[in-house]
Write a structure and sequence with these properties.
single chain; mainly beta; 7-stranded mixed β-sheet; about 50% strand; globular
Length: about 110
Amino acid sequence: QVQLVESGGGLVQPGGSLRLSCVASGSIFSSFIIGWYRQAPGKEREWLAYITSGGSTTYRDPVKGRFTISRDNAKNTVYLQMNDLRPEDTALYFCSMGGNWGQGTQVTVSS
C-alpha cells in the first residue's frame, strides 16, 4: 500500500508563493505518473498538473505559467511550486499516485 503525505500549505497573501511537497512510501515511486489536484469548498476535485516518470509535465490552463511540478526520485518526493497565488487558488491540495491519495494540505490565499 502506497502512502502519500502532502505538506507545505498555509496562508499566503495574493501574489505570494508556496511550495508543496508530496512524499511517497515504497520503492517503485520513480516509475509512476504523479499528479497534483485541488478541491475548493463546494467544488469538485480538479487536476492541476502531472509529471511522468521521465519528467514530462502537463498543466491545466488556470495554473499554467504560475505553477511548476517537479520530482526528486531519490527522495520519493514530488513538488508543486506555486507562484502569483490568487484567492481562487484557495483549496485543499492533494497528490495522487497509482490510484492512491494523500490527506491533502490546505492552501489559503487571502489578504
